Predict the 3D structure of the following.
Amino acid sequence: MRSLGVLLSSSPVTRRAVVQLLSWLLRGLFVTLRPEYVQRQGEQRVQGARTPILLAFWHGRMLYFLKLYEYLGARVTILVSHSRDGELVTQLLSRFGLPTTRGSTTRGGARGLLAVVNKVRSGNHAGFTPDGPRGPRYQVQPGLVLVAKRTGAPILPMTFGAQWKRVLASWDAFLLPLPFSRIVVVYGEPIYVPADASAVALEAKRREVETSLRRITETADNYFIS
């Protein structure tokens, strides 16, 4: 990830130009991808209720959701860390019309989560990478279930896999689908957290989200294996 470090240390003008170029490249890539959907009934059920949803996907599996939920626009907020790479993610998301809330489990976490709670209560959806911003990979941090408890919004686990792909040598094993690849989007069942959930119940829900995300990620990774 040396190239990312060089980009982060470059001037703001250079970073903005690179982010704009990257957004164009991604839009071109997305046009070529051929998506399929598995277990979508959970998503359709919560979308049909017309209430806010907490979208949960691994840090390394976030890319295609730029395209998939771009249509939500200002009706969604994505929790992004205060780190320098978080600033790049924020700029990239803005090119797709997706607003962000800055915060994480390590820096500005409480303020960020409170801001997300207020936005969800106002009717917005929210997106989370619950193993971010620095891992450990595929381990859900507690902030997501706390937001679910405070808002009553269901957590919807989701992930994607690709037939032709490159997996980057990063902490999150970032998955980059290759042009013209078939991809699969896999959903878990919605997970609800009661408003009166105890600490023990919250931990059980955290494990439930983690188990669901791991299971559907395994399904996605095996989908194109004949």
User: Anything to note?
Assistant: The chain has one domain: 2-222. Residues 199-222 form the longest helix (24 residues).
